[in-house]
Model the fold of this input.
Amino acid sequence: MSYIARIQQHAQQRPDAPALSQKTEAGWQTWVWQDVWLQIEQIAAELHQDGIRRGDRVAIFAENAPIWTLVDLACVYLGVVSVPIYATSSPEQVRYILNHAGCRALFADGGLLSAVAPALSGVASLDVVIRFGEGADGVAIDSWLQRRSARVPPVYCRSEELYTLVYTSGTTGQPKGVMLTHGNLMGSMTAHLSSLTFNQGDRSLAVLPLSHVFERGWTAIVLFAGGHNHYLSDINRLAEYLAEVKPHVFCAVPRVFEKIHAGIFQKANAAGGLSLKVLTWVDQWNRDNQQRLAAGDKLSLYRKLLQGLARGLVGRKIKTALGGHTRFIPCGGAALDTDIHAFFMGLGVNLKIGYGLTETMATVSFMPDQGYRLGTLGRPMPGIEIKISPTDGEILVRSPSMTVGYYNDPEATQTLIRDGWLHTGDAGHLDDEGNLVFRERLKELMKTSGGKYIAPQHVEGVIAREALVEQVAVIADARNYATALIVPAWESLEERARTMGIRFSSRLDLIRHADIVAYFEQQLATLQAHLPRYERVKRFTLLAEPFTVESGEITPTLKLKRRVIVQRFKDEIEAMYQTR
Done:
């Protein structure tokens, strides 16, 4: 059954069951399945009235909200190709994507639309601009829908027809439009729903941007299964939403759990005494148990009893903070430190680490419920093949969910897909149990002047365990040792400074204080003690301002644009390589 046919089935068989929810100033607003279907029909009718036809491209430039999903589903209903754009995109990026995709319509939040409105004059293909919420630009969606155009029948697309164009973040050069078909979508949903338990009525919270294929793909799975999707538009309110929604599932990136982990230990260190002793014991016990399980050993009754005690003392509080009902949490987009993963898994928080790309409609492997080995990315999902290139260890994928290529870019497509296999650009291996083990990103691998190879993301992940670190960029390519640019977690750093009795008048004043620099040196030495000497960051610079999308230093998916960073901070970097 196709995606849109399944949505229609839910509306017919469970018309009054909740489907989509959004928090407003008046409380939670919910659309039941019948409402969802009627809205999809009406949006599709208005697009059709404006001349949008099967195969045309329609862009969505907005924060997470039910209307985002309703427009996306209306595109599926009409056989139209949706083009998501990150809410953090610059006017130039928006214009590039609209032009490259040849978009005929744009749906956008009022505030975002105002910011990019001047750039839209350079998009010749654009005929319709619809605004969500307040603003002076475009046509308000409420008045647009009030035209009450005649309904049109749904289009049931063939598997080879395009479902969406998802533009990659573009860490180097312009983003590429990943072509994902209806067959790719159905292949991904089939693989997930045959591997995971998600039932009708189960609650999910959309935490990550819907413009990212990870959250977008999971939302499609939730709705296909008949779940109830809730929308988070402000990540700073995550704790509040988790407590209210009590989701069974929500997707996350490792940084969420790095910060939770760091916060737990920071509070324990501040409290000292019994709290710190209990947490230290729990952490060590969890780590030891997880290592035993990873080695294929069974836990003794004594160890199981103590594991249960640890979950009662610490795990219960964490699970309650996550809503109290989570069965599993898909976690991807970057590497998660093995010790942090062991900490949460040992306490009963099921973080399902996996591997995937935009080009594979997100996940291709993830950890199974039983027999998971720490430090791996799990096993391939049903119907998905993974093999390792014998020449350079590159991870190759072949699956029903993998892209057919890049839009209007045959050269890049030929590089990506060769002999039916998608070349990921990542290196790794399969262990003796068939688990995928990530080694490094081939294009990001750095070679020191001494000939040693460093995978910067691994080192950055180690340093990011420190509660006072918000962002970090490692420098090592063609250098004789590794250095780092570090953006502090300001709230935690200011609290630490007060604890140390340090007076400061500004952030710049704070990061230049000798005691603060010495404290970071001490923490980095401890964190990196297990790394080979050539991988350890020997010098670092604390930055007063964060890396941002607006300044071009990170992508909308928070990946570092290393070339930009190296160029922008060349003076700070060179200073770290001057002889003291």
Q: What stands out?
A: The mean pLDDT is 91. The two ends are 68 Å apart (CA to CA).
